[in-house]
């Protein structure tokens, strides 16, 4: 542990201050939130937020902290870590925060073993935060990929039935998840599934950014989710759970609800050769009914049907699997589609704001793309094909619905070609079609799955010699992975061998060696927590392995005995604490007892909280004595030896130092120094150039006897009310080092600037000029002479000149002048903008003079 501290490596999250590269969108490690939570490394980022690994410094336990940061609506100010909404999206961003906080407030009411627990929620840095239990586990998607992309029905039900129990409690409060999928179910090492990431905030962000990708998952989402006015209820989550169960047992998602309604048939699992009972097959098909009225209305009914407690009609499968040719239903769907298309189109027109192109131009391009499609000019010839035309439309209007639908139509065209070639046994041609489709839409799941099937089929067709050589290479690779203790990778490689040659004799032997290696690793570990980690990992792969099960049982028995002993020590420490035997006498004090507990269980919460209580007691004792500064300092030092980052002791320490300094100034002689005990060194100053301590200060404590008086650097973020901040103190740690960067900047500075340049370029490509302007300004704050940023601002000015010229040609002089002013903010000496500005002002003056009845009153305000 001490070696990790000296090397700058955090034992909690793995943060290495010597190797970490700052990211402009993420909070810096060691950022303190709510004076309680220390930010560690980011765990992941989605469309509307970032999740970090964190430490609750009061309870001394790991937590997961989700920050509301929708990249489509806002960015981060690198100078003070605040979230800054983009100008046109300020109201949408604020409303999104309220949905985020309300979601956290609602989830915090639930205490269910299969729902992630919300510990706290609050607003800070002009955004919202949600603190959750940190759960170590794997996503269900990873588990599925390890089992040939599907599970036996028993294992699948073990995943879905607990989730239905959790949803029953949530639905009782009229809360609906709306985003159930493989990615939102976490599997604990015990095998228990946990439902995470409710979609309320994501849904509202998706609506305001007109991005259906944020609120829909094709295959999981029922028809009502495709409309902003769809009737959402328990049946919505039931459809998603049915799709999830269908995927788990068949290895493929149901077709999108819109495709099914348009005529594509849902094939029942039994028809695919899946070994399940007719009752379960019928329950799944009923959950996936297109019409809300045809589905189960409660998750309790769905669960009962899966368990055979409700008799279903045998006609259910045939009815639900049909495409839905009912005339009325089709007409209802057409109305829904019309509403969706109309709503999205209107939102798109509003969202284009000042950079919206001429509508007649878009219509002309759409007509051109349709003609190219009819002439079979799909992606060829270069410069005259439907794909390039649709891309041209999306460059002008990124959310243009018909262009997006056109791109999807092209991808499905290549999917159909691939399937036709597959049926004709032309596997190489089929793979070529798949690659063409994936170049257009890399994440299109049907093509991804088809590609895997074809690759396996081609592998089976390989000549015997080529296959034998491939198997030999895989076996050698697996042996090396096993030698390097890359057990997970070795297991997957041996499975790949069995896929190519099911009767291979060496692969099963290698898999047995992996199981034995888990046993050896567990036996070689001294700490029970690490032993249990290897045992659980082994049992995930080999649930019936006798040696692993025996080790688990033995460890469980020993842990029970140890738990009883620790409970006795906790009670003893509490008695010593009550008797104020804090760190003395030796052999009978609370500090030594808590340290003994931590040696046995390093993360024991009561022991870590006990150390904080000892420090609290020393703070109270130091505050009682109002006369003797030397005694107060001695008590403070004892408390800091126990808990170096105690905010109260640090604040009191600072106060006493200021008192001492005032006395020295008043007396102008070293008389005060004689008042102090010479053996009591002065505490360290509050601001230190040394790096902040790592996330686990308790583990830095030495065993008894107590160490020498502690001298540790202190974070100014811990004492905002005491440290007199200078302007540069407002910068995060990384930003302070960057603010003075010159052309010969450090590699870390260079990396941050390069990342910001990439982000600015992405903003420009997406026509988000306000965001690009702000990002270029951030770069110039870091490196004032950065040529790339200056060139970027000049290019922004050029974009504004083109937009202003377009509006001028259309006769919209007011908007044209507004765009000119925006461009001049980015590049004040742009000659084209200045010339155009004079022309527009002249035309406005002529227009004002000619309009006697209603003079024009113009107010020009930039939106940056």
UniProtKB/TrEMBL annotation:
Residues 698-747 are annotated as: Disordered. Keywords: ATP-binding, Kinase, Membrane, Nucleotide-binding, TPR repeat, Transferase, Transmembrane, Transmembrane helix. Coiled coil: none annotated. Residues 37-312 form the Protein kinase domain. It comes from the Bacteria. Pfam families: Pkinase. TPR repeats lie at residues 753-786. Signal peptide: none annotated. The chain crosses the membrane at residues 336-355. This is Protein kinase domain-containing protein. ATP binds at residue 66. Gene3D superfamilies: Phosphorylase Kinase, domain 1 (3.30.200.20), Tetratricopeptide repeat domain (1.25.40.10), Transferase(Phosphotransferase) domain 1 (1.10.510.10). InterPro entries: Kinase-like_dom_sf, Prot_kinase_dom, Protein_kinase_ATP_BS, TPR-like_helical_dom_sf, TPR_rpt, Tyr_kinase_AS. GO terms for molecular function: ATP binding; protein serine/threonine kinase activity.
């Amino acid at each position: 542990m001490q070696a990790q501290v000296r090397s700058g490596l955090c034992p909690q999250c793995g943060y290495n201050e010597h190797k970490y590269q700052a990211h402009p969108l993420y909070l810096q490690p060691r950022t303190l939130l709510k004076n309680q939570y220390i930010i560690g490394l980011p765990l992941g980022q989605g469309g509307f937020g970032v999740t970090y690994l964190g430490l609750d410094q009061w309870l001394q336990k790991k937590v997961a902290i989700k920050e509301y940061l929708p990249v489509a609506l806002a960015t981060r100010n690198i100078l003070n870590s605040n979230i800054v909404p983009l100008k046109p999206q300020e109201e949408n961003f604020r409303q999104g925060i309220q949905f985020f906080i309300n979601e956290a407030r609602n989830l915090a009411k639930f205490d269910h073993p299969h729902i992630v627990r919300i510990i706290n929620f609050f607003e800070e840095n002009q955004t919202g935060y949600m603190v959750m239990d940190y759960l170590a586990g794997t996503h269900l998607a990873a588990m599925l990929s390890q089992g040939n992309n599907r599970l036996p029905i028993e294992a699948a039900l073990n995943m879905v039935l607990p989730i239905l129990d959790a949803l029953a409690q949530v639905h009782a409060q009229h809360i609906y998840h709306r985003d159930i999928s493989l990615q939102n179910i976490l599997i604990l090492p015990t095998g228990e599934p946990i439902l995470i990431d409710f979609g309320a905030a994501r849904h509202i962000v998706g609506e305001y950014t007109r991005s259906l990708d944020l609120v829909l998952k094709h295959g999981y989402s029922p028809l009502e989710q495709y409309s902003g006015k769809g009737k959402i209820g328990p049946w919505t989550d039931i459809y998603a759970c049915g799709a999830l169960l269908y995927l788990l047992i068949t290895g493929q998602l149901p077709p999108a609800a819109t495709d099914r309604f348009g005529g594509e048939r849902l094939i029942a699992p039994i028809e695919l050769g899946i070994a399940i009972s007719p009752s379960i097959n019928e329950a799944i098909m009923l959950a996936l009914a297109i019409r809300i009225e045809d589905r189960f209305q409660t998750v309790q009914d769905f669960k009962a049907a899966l368990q055979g407690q409700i008799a279903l009609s045998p006609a259910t499968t045939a009815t639900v699997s049909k495409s839905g040719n009912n005339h009325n239903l089709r007409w209802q769907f057409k109305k829904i589609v019309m509403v969706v298309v109309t709503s999205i189109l209107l939102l798109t027109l509003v969202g284009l704001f000042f950079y919206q192109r001429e509508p007649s131009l878009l219509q002309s391009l759409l007509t051109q793309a349709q003609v190219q499609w009819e002439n079979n000019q799909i992606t060829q010839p270069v410069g005259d094909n439907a794909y390039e035309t649709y891309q041209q439309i999306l460059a002008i209007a990124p959310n243009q619905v018909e262009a997006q639908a056109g791109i999807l139509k092209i991808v499905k065209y290549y999917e159909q070609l691939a399937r036709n070639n597959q049926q004709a046994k032309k596997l190489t041609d089929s793979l070529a079609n798949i690659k063409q489709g994936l170049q257009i839409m890399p994440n299109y799941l049907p093509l991804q799955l088809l590609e895997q099937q074809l690759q396996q089929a081609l592998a089976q067709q390989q000549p015997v010699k080529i296959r034998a050589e491939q198997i030999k290479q895989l076996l050698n690779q697996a042996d090396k992975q096993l030698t390097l203790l890359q057990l997970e990778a070795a297991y997957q490689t041996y499975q790949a061998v069995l896929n190519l040659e099911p009767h291979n004799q060496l692969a099963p032997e290698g898999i047995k060696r992996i199981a034995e290696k888990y046993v050896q690793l567990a036996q070689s570990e001294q700490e029970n927590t690490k032993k249990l980690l290897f045992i659980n990992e082994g049992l995930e792969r080999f649930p019936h392995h006798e040696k692993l099960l025996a080790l688990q049982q033995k460890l469980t028995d020993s842990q029970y005995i140890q738990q009883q002993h620790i409970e006795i020590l906790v009670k003893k420490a509490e008695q010593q604490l009550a008797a104020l035997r804090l760190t003395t006498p030796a052999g009978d004090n609370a500090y030594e007892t808590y340290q003994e507990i931590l040696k046995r269980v390093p993360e024991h919460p009561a022991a870590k909280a006990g150390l904080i209580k000892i420090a609290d007691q020393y703070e109270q004792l130091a505050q009682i004595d109002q006369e003797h500064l030397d005694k107060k300092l001695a008590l403070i030092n004892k408390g800091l030896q126990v808990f170096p980052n105690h905010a109260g002791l640090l604040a009191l320490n600072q106060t006493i130092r200021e008192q001492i300094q005032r006395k020295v100034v008043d007396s102008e002689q070293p008389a005060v120094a004689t008042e102090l005990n010479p053996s009591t060194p002065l505490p360290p100053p509050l601001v230190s150039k040394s790096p902040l301590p790592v996330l686990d200060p308790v583990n830095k404590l030495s065993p008894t006897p107590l160490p020498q008086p502690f001298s540790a650097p202190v974070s100014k973020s811990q004492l905002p009310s005491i440290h007199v901040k200078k302007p540069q103190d407002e910068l995060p740690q990384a930003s302070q080092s960057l603010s003075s960067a010159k052309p010969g900047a450090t590699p870390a500075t260079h990396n941050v600037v390069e990342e910001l340049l990439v982000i600015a370029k992405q903003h420009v490509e997406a026509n988000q000029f306000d965001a690009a302007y702000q990002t270029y300004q951030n770069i110039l704050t870091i490196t004032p002479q950065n040529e790339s940023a200056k060139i970027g601002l000049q290019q922004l000015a050029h974009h504004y000149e083109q937009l202003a010229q377009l509006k001028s040609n259309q006769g919209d002089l007011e908007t044209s002048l507004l765009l000119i002013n925006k461009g001049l903010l980015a590049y004040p000496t742009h000659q084209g903008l200045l010339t155009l500005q004079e022309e527009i002002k002249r035309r406005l003056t002529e227009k004002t003079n000619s309009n006697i009845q209603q003079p024009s009153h113009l107010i020009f305000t930039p939106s940056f």
